[in-house]
Amino acid sequence: VLLAGSLLTLSSDAGAWWIFGEDKDNNKKKVYTIRAGIGLNDKSAQFKALEKWKQMVEKRSDGRIEMELYHSSQLGDDREMMEALQLGTQEVTCPSTAPIGGFIPEFKVFDLPFLFPSNKAADYVLDGPVGQRLLKKLEKEGLIGLAYWENGFRHLTNSVRAVKTPADIKGLKVRTMENPIHLAAWEAMGANPTPMAFGELFSAMQQGVVDGQENPWGTIYLQNFYEVQDYVTNTGHVYSPFVLMVSEKFYDKLPSDLQKILRETAKEVKDYQRKINREMNAKYREKLKDKMNVTILSAEEKKAFQKAVQPVYEKYEEEIGAGLIKDVMNEVEEYQNK
Ligand code: TK8
Question: Atom 7, ligand 1: which residue's CA is nearest?
Answer without folding.
Answer: 198
